[in-house]
Design goal:
The protein is built from 7 helices and 13 strands. Helix 5 packs across helix 7. It has a single domain, classed as Fumarylacetoacetate hydrolase, domain 2, CATH 3.90.850.10. By secondary structure, the chain is an alpha+beta fold. Strands 1, 2, 3, 5, 6, 7, 10 and 11 form an 8-stranded mixed sheet that branches. A 5-stranded mixed sheet has the order 4-13-12-8-9, with no helix packed on it.
Length: 261
């Protein structure tokens, strides 16, 4: 286990990389013995810098929920990161690519909680009961690790490669639809470039939220009423650049759009 001073030092370096938009060499290359537990401690240190600068935590994101990403990182468990107030964009927003390092877009289903969720023991049904609504969402992931050369420890430490996110303006009660069979179509510059389904997120998006609640519960942390939870990508990450316009459509829920300038 890393010393507390080293954890703080690496967290500060990741925050500097975020602020300056200058990537770092992989942490797992610089510190080969870095564990996932160390990485989560670094993540908290990085997030604390953002809070100290005036941001607040507005929710959580779940990553590594699809088989393709698990295979890429050679892990068989998801990870999580914190969503902060400075990450939120409205539907149709224009995002300047030079505010990020190497952005990639993911289409997801976002949950907004109407009740606290405290694990362990949280079930899929508990998640649905505690959810006020679900919305279409773009998560724009980004990496402070150079060229996305990441292992699981790298992305965890880097706040699960969080960038920014865009919430659509359509909200539905999750009990009115089968989220596991919801189909997603992702268009880039008017052409369909990816399709997916709710089941891509751990078999059902509510399963991903339950995993998060139970994982955090073992650490004595709960999910709070009003928090936004991003349940994981329903298709592969899509690299973006200035001039791109993306839209996702989720069957039975709605759509969301984002453009890059």
């Amino acid at each position: 286990m890393m010393h507390a001073e080293q954890i703080q030092e690496i967290g500060a370096s990741l925050h500097r990389a975020l602020a300056a938009r200058q990537p770092l060499d992989p942490l797992t290359t610089q510190w080969p013995a870095l564990t996932i537990e160390d990485a989560y401690r670094i993540q908290l240190a990085m997030v604390q810098h953002r809070i100290a600068a005036g941001e607040r935590v507005v929710g959580k994101k779940i990553g590594v929920t699809s088989k393709v990403v698990m295979d890429m990182l050679d892990v068989r468990q998801p990870d999580f990161g914190h969503l902060l107030s400075g990450m939120v964009y409205p539907d149709g927003a224009a995002i300047a690519v030079d505010t990020l390092i190497a952005p990639k877009a993911e289409g997801e289903i976002a949950f907004v909680l109407k009740e606290d969720l405290q694990g362990p023991g949280v079930t899929n049904a508990d998640v649905l009961r505690a959810t006020a609504c679900v919305l279409p969402c773009f998560e724009i992931v980004d990496s402070r690790i150079r060229d996305w050369k990441i292992r699981i420890q790298d992305t965890v430490a880097d706040n699960a490669s969080s960038g920014v996110f865009v919430l659509g303006d359509a909200a539905v009660d999750p009990r009115d639809i089968d989220l596991g069979t919801v189909g997603m179509t992702l268009e880039k510059n008017g052409e369909v470039v990816a399709t997916g389904a709710g089941a891509a997120a751990l078999g059902h998006p509510a399963n991903a939220v339950a995993w998060l609640a139970n994982t955090l519960g073992r650490l004595g942390i709960g999910l709070k009423k009003g928090e936004v939870i991003l349940s994981g990508s329903l298709a592969a990450m899509m690299p973006v650049r200035a001039g791109d316009h993306l839209r996702i459509s989720l069957g039975g829920i709605g759509s969301a759009g984002v453009r890059f300038v």
